[in-house]
Amino acid sequence: MRIRLLPGERVLVRTRPNPLPLVRPVIAGFLILALGGFGLGYLARPDLPGGLAESQTVLLPVVFAIAVLLLLRVVVRPLVRWASNRYVLTSMRLIHRTGTTRRTEHQINLSAISQLQTEQGLIQRMMGSGTLVADLGFDRSHAYRHVPQIATFKDYVVQAIGELPLTRMFDGVDMEIDPQYARGGTPRVQQEWRDAQP
User: Fold this and answer.
1) Spatial separation of the C-alpha atoms in residues 109 and 72, rounded to whole Å
2) pLDDT at residue number 122
């Protein structure tokens, strides 16, 4: 997966979701294989009852086709969806890409994140995965589900946010802070305002 990086941007973490959601499809796949194998074995017997023996040549391919279609729907489809799901953390953005034939990409600038929250169920805690919710303010948020090593990933996001250039909001526009103010100096405008106070 190639990402067009902005000037000065670098990729910090690139990962797929935790494979925990694949547990059910894999179990269902084993059940489909077991039932399909039993059905095919039963229909392939030479001593089938009369009605089944007459349609044996039709039933065998039908049962096989049903088993293959179920495997494609229940196992292969979730596996492909999981494999095409990516989380990418850069020094400036958090990117979520999904899809193989039709790709969807959701990007959040790290500077837009006002709060990070993690959510974990019992099994997710055992696996170390969880959901990372990025609060963007104004009742907007985006959830990244089944993030592997959720605590470490969150630490990387917090560290990347901390390394962003310091900015000051001025009439709704982000402006870079002069380095002397970042060292604790008092901005000239604030000093003039304080001097003008009675």
Assistant:
1) 37
2) 92
